[in-house]
Structures are given as C-alpha cells and as structure tokens.
Known about the structure:
Chain B has helices at residues 2-20, 45-59, 78-86, 100-108, 141-150, 163-175, 187-195, 206-214, 270-285, 287-295, 305-326, and strands at residues 34-38, 67-71, 93-97, 117-126, 129-133, 153-158, 179-184, 201-202, 218-223, 258-265. Chain B is of the alpha/beta class. In chain B, helix 6 (163-175) links the parallel strand 6 and strand 7 (179-184). By secondary structure, chain C is mainly alpha-helical. Chain C folds into two domains: 3-93; 118-174, no CATH class. Chain C starts with a helix and ends with a helix. Chains in contact: A-B, A-C, B-C. Chain C: The chain crosses the membrane at residues 23-41, 61-82, 103-130, 142-163.
Amino acid sequence: MEEIGLLMQGFAVALQPENMLLMLVGVVLGVLIGVLPGLGGANGIAILLPLTFAMPPVSAVIMLSCIYWGALFGGAITSILFNIPGEPWSVATTFDGYPMAQQGKAGEALTAAFTASFFGAFVAVVMITFVAPIIAGFALRFGPPEFFAVMFLSFACFIGMAKGSPLKTLAAMMLGFLLAAVGMDTVTGQLRMTFGSEEMIRGFDFLVAVIGLFGISEILCSIEDGLRFKGQRAKIDLKVVLRTWAELPKHWFLAIRSAVIGCWMGITPAGATPASFMSYGVARRMSKDPNGFGRGKVEGVVAPETAAHAAGTSALLPMLTLGVPGSPTAAVLLGGLIMWGLQPGPMLFVEQKEFVWGLIASMYLGNVAGLLVVLVAVPWFAAILRVPFPIIAALILTVCAIGAYTVSNAEFDIVLMLVFGVIGYVMKKLDYPLAPLVLALVLGDRTEEAFRQSLLVSNGDIGIFFHNWLSGGIMALGIALLAWPVLTWARGALAGGFGRARAA
Amino acid sequence: MTLAISRRSVLLGLAAATIAGGAEARSWEPNRPVQIVVPAGTGGGADQMARVIQGIVSKHSLMRQPMVVVNKAGGAGAEGFLEAKGARGNPHMLIITLSNLFTTPLATGVPFNWKDLTPVTMMALDEFVLWVKADSPWKTAQDLIEAAKAQRLKIGGTGSKQEDQIITAAITRATGAPFTYVPFRGGGEVAVQLVGGHIDATVNNPIEAVTHWRSGALRPLCVFDEKRLTATEKMTETQAWSDIPTCKEQGLDVDYLMLRGIFMPTGVKPEQVAFYEGLMAKVRETPEWKELMQQGAFNTTSLTGDAFRGWLTREEERHRTLMQEAGFLANPS
Amino acid sequence: MSTTTLDIAQAAGRSSQGVRRTAMEVATSLTLALVGAAAIWDSARLGAGWGVEGPQSGYFPFWIGMILAGASLANLIPVLRAKGAAAEEMFVTWPQLRLVMSVLIPTVFYVAAIPVSGIYAASAVLVAYFMMRLGEFTWRSALPAAAATAVVAFMTFEIWFLVGLPKGPVEELLGF
Lengths: 504, 333, 176
C-alpha cells in the first residue's frame, strides 16, 4: 500500500537524531505548558509557533506535535494533584483523580491517566492512518441540528450523575447555563446580562470559573481539616507504574468504548470536552458500582482521559481534511500550516503527501515519547504533594492567579476567580453539586447556538431535529437516556414530599 | 535549549540589522515586547494575519524586541478595542482590525470609535466571494437570486451583524430576494456547512473556501468588488481567481471589502507611529507575506497617514448607512 | 508542621459555636433566586419571546432564570421545615472559620495588590507570608523561597514563553 510506504518514510525522517532531540524538547516543553494553567495547549503552541518558522517544516511539525502531546499529558497532572483542571477536558478527570490522590494513590491515578491518554490518542492516530478519507466525509453530515443532538446527548449521558438533592442539582445547572449566556449572543449580536459593565462583555470564561470553583475552593476546604493536603505520606516510586499497569488490562472494554466515543466526538467535531463528560457519564452508568464513582475509582480516570485524548487527536482530522479545527489547539496549528504555505483542506492529502504522512508519523512517535517522559516523571509529580502546605498553598494560589489572568489578559478575571472560589466553597459545603454547573457552563452557549441555528435553517420548525436518521437517532438515544433517571428522580422528589411540580 | 539558541540568533541577527540600517532614522525603537491585540478568536483571519506578521518579524529579525500576539475576542472584539482605547500613550501595543472596528460599536453601542485609536497602516483588503455548492443548479448570481425569490434560501456567515450579514442584507436590498442569514463562529466552519449542504450559499473570504473550490466541492459565482481579482494563477483545472466575474457584471450591484489594518492607542508620538509604519512596510516586502496575499487573493492596497484616515472616515459612514438600512444599529437606550 | 495549628484544627471540628447550616442555606437560596430574577429582568428587556425564526436572545436566559429562582425558593421549604439535629448542624464553626480566613484574607489582599505591585512582587510576598505565618518557617528560608518564586515565574512567563503578566514598579525599574 502506498500509505504504508509513505508512513515508513515519515518514520525514517522523524527518527533522525536531531529530530529525536526536538521531540524530547517538545514533550518537556509541552508538559510544562500543560501543567501551568495559564498556558493551555492552544496558547502554548501559539507562543512557540513563530519560533518554529525558522526550522524546516518537517522538524517544526515534529516539535509542535510533541508539544501538543506533552500538553495533553500535562493537563491531567494538576487535575489529579490539586483539583485544578488546566484544560476544559480535564474537568471530568478531577472527579475521581483528585479523590484518588487524597487517598494516597496519586501515583496510580497519574499512571492510569497517562496510559489512558496514550491509548486514546493511539487509537485515534491509527484511525487517522487507515480510514481518514471515509471518516472525513462523515463530518460533513453534521449541520446545526446534528450538532445540537450531540450536545443534547452529552447532557443526557451526564444528567443521571448527580447525587443528593434534585433541586440543588437543578439550581446548579441553571446557574451554569446563566453564566454561559453572559456576554455577546452570537446569533443576534446582542449583549446579554452585562448590565452595562465593560468587564462583563467578555462573559465568564470557563477556565476562570473552574480554577476558582475547583482549585481555590479546594484550598479553603482543606484548611478546615488543618493546614495540609491529604494523602501526602504515600510512598511513591517507579514501581507504582508497573503495579498500576498490572491492574489496567481489566478495563479494556471501558478503554475501547471511551476511545470510540472520543473518536466520534472529535470528528463531528464536537470536541474533547463533551467527549470526556459523555464517556465519564456512560462509564458510571454501565458500571456495577456506580456509587463508587466520584470517590476515587480508577475507571473514573480512565474513561474521561481516554475519550478526551482520542477526541483531541481525531480533531486533527477535520482540520487536515476540511480546514475546520476541532479544538483551539488545532486552530492555532492550522494558522501554522498556512504560514508554511500549506493550505489545509481536501487538497492537502493529495498535494502534500510527504508532509501529511510525516505529520502522522510524528504523531505516533510523539505519543510514545510523551508517554515515556511523563511515566518516568510520575514519582516526581506525586512528590509535589509532600511539599509543606503553606508553601504549596501559596504556590497554587499564584499559579491560579496567573492562569486566570492569562485566559484573556484581564486583571478583573483574578478577582472573579477568587469570587468563584468562595462560591465553590459555600456550594461544596452545602452539597450543591459542581459537576452540572460546570457542564452547563462549558456546553451551554454552544448548545443554545446550535438550537437556534437549527431553527433559523428550518424557519422555526422544531421537527428539524428529527428530519433525518442521524440527528433523529441521536436525539432518540438522548431522550431514552434521560427518561430513565428522570423517572427515578421524580419518584425521589415525590417521596421527599416536595418539589413535585419542579421535577416534572 | 532551542529557545535559548534561537533567542541568541535573533539578537545576533538584529545586531547586524541595526548596523546595516544605521543610516535610517533611528529616532525611536521599542524597548520592551510589543503586543499585537487581535480582537477576534484564535484561528480566524485576523489572528492568522497577526501570527504571520509575528513570524515574519522574528524570522527576518525586523525588530529588536519580540512580538506577542494576544487574543481579546469578547463581545465581537469590543474587549480588544476597549483595551486599546484604555492604553493611551502605550507605544508597545498594536491592534489588528477587521470590519468589526466599525460594526461592533454600531451594533452593540459599546462606547468606542476608530478615532479612539491611532491609524498606522492598512495592510491589505480582504475580498468576499459568493459561493454555492458545485452540484447546485446555480451557475450565476442571477440564478441564485431567482431561486431565492421562488423559495427562501439560507446564507451562512461569520458572526452576527458583521460583514457577512451586512453583505447578505445588501444583496436583499439590491435585488429584493429574501435570504435567511445563519450565523456561525468562524469562516472555516461556514465553508464546511456549505460543502455539507446545510446552507445554500456563503459570502466567504477567498482564503476560507479556496481549498473546497480546488477539491471541486464549491463554485464561486461572483466577487463583491468593483473589479476582478488580480491573481491569474490557475487554482482549478480551468479557473484562476481572475476568472471569477464581479457581482456587478452579473447584475448584482453590491461591493464590499474588509479592512485588515494596524492601529495603535492614541497619545503616541509621531516617531513611534513612523517606526511601525516602517516595520510593516518591511513585512509587506517579505516572500512569506506575498505568499499569504497570493493564497488568499487579497487586495494588496496599502495606505498610511492622511490617506488612510480619509479612507476610514468614508468607510465608517458607509457602514453606518449599510447597517442603518439593514436595521442593525443598536438602540440608543 | 506546627503543632499549634494542628491543635486548632482538631478543636475546630468539635466546637459547637459557629454559622448554622440553615442560615447559610437560606442565604444561598435567596442569592440564587436574586440571580435568577436579574436574568429574568435583563431577558425581558431583550425580548424573551419565540420569534418567527426561533427563540429570541432573551428566551433561554428568561426561562433558565425562572427555573433557577423557582428551584432556589423551593429549596427553602425542606430547609425551613428541618427540625432537631438537622436544624442544629453547623456550616462552619468559629475556629474553622478562623482557619479559612487565615488563608482567604491574605489572598484577598494578594488579588487587590496585583494591579498595583504586579503579580511577581505580590506572589513573592504571599509565599513569604504563608511560610512565616502559617508554617513557622523563619525569614531565613522564607525570603529566598519568595524571591525564587518571583524569579522563576518571571523567567518562565516573561522571558521564555513571552506571556506578559501584570507588572509593577519593581519590573519598571529593571526596564521591562
């Protein structure tokens, strides 16, 4: 096959010593970018992109894709150790990753997360290698109604997750939707709920909210139990990697299912964030022990990480074949391609074969290099937890402030972060669930937009969501998933003797 | 490590450049990193252009200090404009604009006007082309207009009450054919929605749709300019950019060009403006820039100083008229 | 780790004096209802109807505001009905609150200082303060750690990654 030959050629180029060195540098830089919440994969690559213009395009692509891998791997580290998701798709990883770290299993959680990321990304790269042309066409079928259906399904998968008071879950989710709506309405261009404030025009950025709700509030909660983080005494060495690996094969089905969800969401291109939530939701629902989720279950780390990285990687496919970036990081890479005189789109695979296969080869190798680097570093990462609380708390606060600021270079966002921290503290102590709030905040405006675009397309006919088998099928699946928990939910509310009308 | 090396090489290159350019007026130079504010999201046209400029400046060592791209997309760019407005007297901030320089304040009532900035230079003008699917029955703009009169068609575009929707409204005004405008987030997304058949036509910029044209998925009907595009290189088997008729030729009297310009905050010194004028002139001479202009079929008009101000004044008036006619102006409340 | 802070922490959980959970529940519900009301008010201004081509700008925020306000107010019922132990439960005891404030108050000052002093100087002071106040380190170890934090952060962001963060008079003096 021609493809295999080209791929092997790509490997030969990537394995030259200077390119290997670039790979290593790229991975290390990427991990650094992933760990610092202020430097998401997208900013990281954007910042380093101009540097690579001085290199030959192949070397530049190798280095950039290694930075990309490093950043993907690095995102899980702060989520697990400090409950601070550096990227939107790392949020679901905190649900079980952080409890694991609190129980002294930080090493296991990190190893599971890295391995899962590797697996998800690997599956996606294999898919890109062999079925790219077939799959690329599939993305074209996704118009606004199909997009809304996918969003609806993400919510449906996740909705059964909430524990505790249904009223509080509802309130938290609605608060998330409202926060997402602040700022400019993309459909009509009107400003909503800014109340005349120039700072509010920007809206509430997801990362600012999450850094506060998760990171800052966690510090406030943990000092109540004394000035320390839990789980700091666990003994960690490289053996933890092997021990965790011995356990992981039994989750093979979970990993494959999550990778499939991720690839699908990456191609559509709904992106890595809904993929991670959906995969987590499905894993919990299919589990024999759903109540163990959220309390430090390794499945709760494997599912979202696999899906997020399968999605993040397969998002490169619509970028290369259609010129539509599936993620912010991919969007910046897209700019880089144009700078090198390569026009992404259907003609890229025809006219720039060497480049495309070189890129794919570097994706394989970068993924492997990234896994090796981060696994070796697991004990070091986990050892951060042994730093005395006063130092680590001050450093976390600093890193959070920098992270909040860099999202849109606004000092006001640091204030917002602190406010969200206090809100998160109060909500946690009163058992308001944060997950529905975050889900609504991150997907809310895209969902509303897709809904309204669909109705524009159909001239206001709501039947458009069932106009073909694709969106109709996804909608039906979502409704079926919703119906089951709503029934139990309503029963619970009735038994409680209140809120009957609300639950319906 | 690579970082350290390339920084040093940048510095060395610069030392050489400074010696070579010693004869030129060196009255002012940036003494700290220069920010380019992009009032749009990552990956869009303005963002790409800013990053290309950043890449060119560092690759050819055109400036001693590094250049940093900062995206401030909130509120259709209002965030970026307000930031630049507030940075009075800061000579280390540039802002790259698109048509939202005019449309955002008019549509939202955000307190901002281009006169709150110092115009530096027009880098280029971006063209707009009317696209349909290659397998659609419409071969000319008139075919599309006639079809739209018979049955309401959908035109997709980027954002709301911005250039794409203004053009759509102008088409309706010129011909009486009603269109439903469907807003999306970015030009690439719009092009793919058209390829997928979810909308009937788009007014994408050339660079956003060129690859789908070349792959045979899309067909350009006409270009919204007074004269044809200049690039004569064959893009498909049979057609070059210059083969696309103007919309006026096809009886659709609408033209629209989008500004890609560089501005500074107010209160900066003339020699500081002159430095960036010179810098951008050097950028426009590089092969990378010419490559970008060629690929995107840009209109490479460039203006500075009073000519640029005059152009801005006329364009602002034109946008006000266009948006008033379309009913896009913000309520005075 | 200081023994005194640990003692406080142990005492903190047992103390029975503090903010009642009921009071916090009521306050939170009322705040959320207010947020909902604000959304309803603003959406009504924009138009919250269902136009010819689907919902208007204010449609979703309007109904979301309604549901939020409704759910929050409904949440008051079980809270106010609670009797016995549930009604006596503490949200936070005074000693616990003192611990929380020992971190929160310096953080508020930190955030307030950033626009004035820049983020690097403020972070250095925060690190030094936390080490000396919360963790009984002496200035001998606290000051170098603080300086190191500022310098490492500065090098990473300003020099290597070219990310501009808020800077103050100190950086100005050094010519950045």
